[in-house]
Amino acid sequence: MEMRWRNRLAVCFLILAVGIFMVPVYGADIVVIEQAKVNMPKIRLYVHDTENKMLSKDDVEAYLGQELLETEKVSRFDKDREGSRYVFLMDISSSVPSGTFEQMKKELKSFQRKMGKGDRWTLMTFGEKVTTVFQDQKASDQVSDKIDRLKGKDDRTLLFEALKQAAQDIDADSGQRNIFVVLTDGEDFSGGEASKAEALDVLEKKSVSLYAQGIENGDAKNRANRKALGEFARETGGEYRDFPSLEDLKDYLDEFQIVELAGSSNKITFQKETLSVNFKQEKKQVQKEVYLTRYQKAGEKAKISKAEKTGDKEIRIYYNQSMTGADEPDHFRILYQGKHPAEVLKAKYAEKDGDYYSTLQMKDSIYQGEYTIDCSDVVSDSMEKTEPEELTVRLKGKNYVVHHYGPIFLLAAVLTGGGVFAVFRTRKKKREEPETAEEKPREPENLEAVQEETTKPGGNKVAVREHLEAGHHPEIMLKVYADDRIAARISAEIDSSLMVGRNQNSDLYFDDPTMSRQQFVLFEKGEEIWIRNLSKTNPTQCNGRIIEGEIPLRNGDVLCAGSTIIKCEMKERTV
């Protein structure tokens, strides 16, 4: 009796084990990511939930590397709206049993009857060579005739060569979903592991998933080939199952959902990156390696959207997109009322709640009036790296005149008031006291002699004029060369500073596309004229050497700014 129970128990375990191994491979995981079509900043996922649960935006949390992506939309795959492009690769080698080969042709013809309006399909065969039977077709009787004429008789099998060629022909930039289906026993004579690695690399770069339909021919080696084929298919994001099942495969593929993600920038690295997706409802994380090789052009150029005063000595500048180089104080040139430079001591860049901004700590207080904000080497964090145009805004703050000249006005008012009061007291006193003969005002004895003395050369008038002329600014002659000859001579007076660059708001600007918008600045320092390089992307050179920081200019120095050559000649000061 005890033996019977043992035997029955053993039979139950055997049935359970067989049942486990007979479960289809499709649906083995709860959530499967078939494809990740990357066209930065957009990423589209094709996701399958084996329990047919509809995902929601809140259920999906995705990261590209360390960056949190925005989940924009989740929808069911609609074959009539979008459609798919199917590429079938059929093994026509003699190792495929003849009965199975005929069944493959029958399954292909039945598959096209389930195709949607937007679906297209291509059929390629591989044996001794790779051949395209038809390409990018809808379902039709002509296609069925071509399938009927296929023969399985070749001695060699170029499996991975066929996959490689088919993947290279795929347009990865199209909006369609690309699906490869291979019908084979897994045997390959196309060059071993190198060809397998090459085929996998192209499939991954083109975001193509492979669905393998393994064919059993009774050979012991066939089992190993089919196992390796299954591993290869799963590496691409596809699946493996034993043939025939093309109609079941079509039903499975139509059950997928589309998850649309968005990054903050269209920047790509041309390398493989890790995409991590958390499905919160299923408590499942899926990772997929994706290639960042395609991007969409930025919808708009970088610009400064607004600026506002955020402190007594603080300005916040907002951009319309993510920026780089926006945390360096030297990258900002700010003018008050178009002529008074405002020095930036510190710059801090941040991205928060969809805003992109730089907070600038100024040396002086913010005054009421117009501020012109210009950037140099501040560019969009995108493939285009566009530089924002300058912005003029009106800010609220202290009154500039009162702040700078208020004490002087107050002192002048006090002195004026005191003087008026003293004159008033003197006149009042004189009116009260009797007038004597000695106190009467006397007329000058010779009025003409006095007038002649005040206007002759060397008098006060000439001395005052010379004093005013002694404080003029240094001058410099800039000779601009083109084709080894002087194209222009520019005489400039250095009034505090002289900005030179491509920007038309510079004091001296050139129509030179290789020159930065703010290339360099000339300024007075003591009795000398100095130059400071402002461009990091294309530094200014003096006598063939890159200017590091600022240096004094000498008579005859030759400057190279972009593709413009400038020779400097100092003018002697005259007193």
Summarize the structure.
This protein is an alpha+beta fold.
Topology:
Elements: H1 2-21, E1 31-39, E2 42-49, E3 60-64, E4 67-68, E5 70-76, E6 84-91, H2 98-112, E7 120-126, E8 130-137, H3 141-148, H4 159-168, E9 177-184, H5 193-205, E10 209-214, H6 220-235, E11 240-242, H7 246-254, E12 257-262, E13 272-279, E14 284-291, E15 304-311, E16 314-319, E17 323-324, E18 332-336, E19 340-342, E20 344-352, E21 355-362, E22 369-375, E23 379-380, E24 391-395, H8 400-432, H9 447-455, H10 460-469, E25 475-482, E26 485-493, E27 497-501, E28 508-509, E29 520-525, E30 528-533, E31 541-542, E32 545-546, E33 550-552, E34 558-561, E35 564-570
Parallel strand pairs: 6-7, 6-9, 9-10, 10-11, 27-28
Antiparallel strand pairs: 1-2, 2-12, 3-4, 3-13, 5-12, 7-8, 13-14, 15-16, 16-21, 17-23, 18-19, 18-22, 20-21, 22-24, 25-26, 25-35, 27-29, 29-30, 30-33, 31-32, 31-34, 34-35
Helix pairs in contact: 4-5
Overview of this structure, please?
By secondary structure, the chain is α+β, with helices and mostly antiparallel strands. The protein folds into four domains: 26-72 and 260-291; 84-254, Rossmann fold (3-Layer(aba) Sandwich); 304-400, Sandwich (Immunoglobulin-like), CATH 2.60.40.1220; 475-570, Sandwich (Tumour Suppressor Smad4), CATH 2.60.200. It contains ten helices and 35 strands. The strands form eight sheets. Strands 8-7-6-9-10-11 form a six-stranded mixed beta sheet, sandwiched between helices. It has a six-stranded antiparallel beta sheet with strand order 26-25-35-34-31-32, with no helix packed on it. Strands 28-27-29-30-33 form a five-stranded mixed beta sheet, with no helix packed on it. Strand 9 (177-184), helix 5 (193-205) and strand 10 form a beta-alpha-beta unit. Helix 4 (159-168) runs parallel beside helix 5. The chain is elongated and about 125 Å long. Residues 11-28 and 433-471 have low confidence and may be disordered.
